[in-house]
Design goal:
39% helix; mainly alpha; 7 helices; 221 residues; single chain
Length: 221
């Protein structure tokens, strides 16, 4: 258990390292759409394991450029049209980055291992899916060596760790002191928690400006 906590801490620290900036000088401001959402009970569960459908939804909302492979229909036995993650799972399957299991099952509630997440990021980066995620794929390609080995050792990856990594790879990220607005979820109110600002970056829509290699929020919603 101690080794597991230690590994989780190492992975979290790696994810919090500054990204190699690919931001064009002209991009001094913009708007970040939220890509991570909470549960009906008002929680966002940072330390819960991320599931395959949650990962599909996060990636779907981080698509930077549309592509015809972002299909809108699914043939998985366990993903019906009325499922909240249907469109995201269909898109991920169409891109070939999150495919089904044997016998036509997707297993949407299955947790995601570090090895599986590494494989997904590799597929995004080294296949035609790259066109939909230009910044994310470029960042992963440049930083894979420093992250992948430790990530692949994790049996499961938490929602907070996933958010921190995706923030890093999409050049999103601020300190709590650079954010604004009220907390949306009852279990993400402790600003001293390592994941506090990372989760808010992922779940709060905000306008931002970029100065001195840092992102500052200028409006929320």
């Amino acid at each position: 258990m101690r080794n597991g906590r230690l590994l989780a801490g190492i992975i979290a620290a790696l994810m919090l390292l500054p990204a190699i900036s690919l931001r064009a000088k002209a991009e001094e401001s913009g708007f970040h759409q939220p890509y991570l959402f909470g549960y009906p009970d008002g929680t966002i569960r940072p330390e819960a394991d991320v599931t395959r459908e949650e990962l599909a939804q996060m990636l779907f909302r981080l698509v930077e450029q549309k592509d015809e492979k972002l299909q809108t229909s699914s043939c998985f036995c366990d993903v019906t049209k009325n499922r909240w993650s249907y469109q995201a799972i269909s898109a991920a399957a169409g891109l070939g980055i999150l495919t089904g299991e044997a016998c036509g099952w997707y297993l949407p509630k299955k947790t995601v291992s570090g090895e599986a997440l590494t494989a997904v990021l590799d597929l995004i980066t080294y296949t035609d899916a790259r066109v939909c995620f230009p910044i994310l794929s470029s960042q992963w390609e440049q930083q894979r060596e420093s992250i992948a080995d430790g990530l692949a050792q994790k049996q499961t990856v938490s929602r907070a760790e996933t958010a921190a990594l995706l923030n890093k790879l999409t050049e999103r990220g601020t300190e709590a002191s650079s954010q604004m607005g009220s907390d949306l979820y009852s279990d993400n109110t402790d600003s001293s928690a390592w994941y506090y600002a990372q989760m808010r970056e992922a779940c709060v829509g905000h306008s931002w400006k970029y100065e001195n290699n840092e992102e500052y929020w200028i409006a929320v919603g």
